[in-house]
What we know:
Number of strands: 4
Structural class: alpha+beta
Distance between the termini: 46 Å
Order of helices and strands: HEEHHHEEH
Strand order of the largest sheet: 1-2-4-3
Radius of gyration: 17 Å
Number of helices: 5
Amino acid sequence: MNVEEEVERLKEEIKRLGKVQDDGSYKVTFGTLFNDDRCANIFEALVGTLRAAKKRKYLTYDGELLLQGVHDNVEITLKPTPVVVPVATDAVARS
């Protein structure tokens, strides 16, 4: 699995385990992700996948490196997916 695929899987798992917020984002703690059996089976390097997703600005959390136990209560926020609004073309606008 490449990094992009792992990041997409991580986003799915955050949606599964997290709580949706009013703005459409999802919040989950690092401990919840780290201690989940399904996540443990999917991600060989959860911290690395989190860092890759943060670098790509899909999610946010405080700090650079999350460690099990020490950072279990750190909230990870998956940013809301932007809504794509189709743009009307001239042909559609004229009809």
